[in-house]
């Protein structure tokens, strides 16, 4: 709900005159909901942060620990900041994950021939790992990973993604100078359908990326979470999770 309320509040504020926005934020129900989400997250994260900051306390590998590790030293004990970091992580992950999952379901329903081989791969991986799903189990789902990547290739989150503005002048390795304040973006939809990159790009091939990974030296490439220039479909990662 934080993501939905944040988008709704942003839309409402954008429709107001800039001079009215500082005052409207106290009255918009969407912004009151956002503040309630922050208050709830502060209540939930406060005991976790205090526990993790205790000397010698064992810290599990989760988002709370990651945020503490990468926070500026002055903000590690700032509960407002830590709570907001948790909400921002969910903000980036909820709608992108839901979008990808929705597209996977629709594309799989439209192409039922993929259901059986994907199901068999999952069952084989589970049998190998004693019926317990672990990170190692997920790495065995090569066909599943390939199908997800192809779905994302066919359904990029936008025409242009990875939108960024330079905060200072940048000179690229090819000598191109990019002044401060320049907006940059990756043409994800064009990359996804570029015949110079993909064989028969207009044809849906659910196991395309599985075959690409079978090439010599490519076993760790072309995964749905692998950084690669052709994966600029929402983020440096193929799944576009933020």
TrEMBL record:
<dbReference type="InterPro" id="IPR036396">
    <property type="entry name" value="Cyt_P450_sf"/>
</dbReference>
<comment type="similarity">
    <text>Belongs to the cytochrome P450 family.</text>
</comment>
<dbReference type="Pfam" id="PF00067">
    <property type="entry name" value="p450"/>
</dbReference>
<dbReference type="InterPro" id="IPR001128">
    <property type="entry name" value="Cyt_P450"/>
</dbReference>
<dbReference type="GO" id="GO:0020037">
    <property type="term" value="F:heme binding"/>
</dbReference>
<protein>
    <submittedName>
        <fullName>Cytochrome P450</fullName>
    </submittedName>
</protein>
<keyword id="KW-0479">Metal-binding</keyword>
<keyword id="KW-0560">Oxidoreductase</keyword>
<dbReference type="GO" id="GO:0005506">
    <property type="term" value="F:iron ion binding"/>
</dbReference>
<keyword id="KW-0408">Iron</keyword>
<dbReference type="GO" id="GO:0016705">
    <property type="term" value="F:oxidoreductase activity, acting on paired donors, with incorporation or reduction of molecular oxygen"/>
</dbReference>
<keyword id="KW-0503">Monooxygenase</keyword>
<dbReference type="GO" id="GO:0004497">
    <property type="term" value="F:monooxygenase activity"/>
</dbReference>
């Amino acid at each position: 709900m934080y993501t939905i309320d944040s988008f709704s509040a942003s839309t409402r504020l954008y429709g107001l005159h800039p001079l009215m926005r500082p005052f409207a934020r106290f009255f918009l129900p969407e912004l009151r909901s956002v503040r309630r989400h922050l208050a709830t997250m502060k209540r939930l994260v406060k005991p976790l942060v205090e526990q993790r900051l205790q000397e010698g306390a064992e810290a599990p590998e989760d988002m709370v620990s990651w945020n503490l590790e990468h926070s500026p030293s002055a903000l590690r004990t700032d509960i407002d900041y830590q709570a907001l970091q948790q909400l921002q992580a969910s903000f980036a992950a909820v709608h992108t994950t839901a979008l990808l999952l929705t597209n996977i379901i629709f594309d799989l329903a439209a192409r039922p021939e993929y259901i059986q081989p994907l199901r068999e791969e999952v069952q084989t991986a589970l049998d190998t790992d004693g019926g317990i799903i672990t990170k190692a189990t997920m790495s065995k789902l090569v066909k599943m990973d390939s199908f997800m990547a192809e779905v994302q290739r066919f359904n990029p989150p936008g025409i242009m993604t990875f939108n960024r503005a330079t905060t200072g002048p940048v000179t690229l390795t090819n000598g191109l100078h990019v002044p401060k304040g320049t907006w940059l973006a990756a043409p994800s939809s064009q990359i996804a359908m570029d015949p110079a990159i993909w064989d028969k790009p207009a044809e849906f091939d659910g196991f395309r990326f599985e075959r690409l990974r079978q090439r010599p030296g490519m076993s760790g490439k072309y995964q749905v979470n692998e950084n690669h220039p052709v994966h600029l479909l929402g983020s440096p990662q193929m799944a576009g999770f933020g």
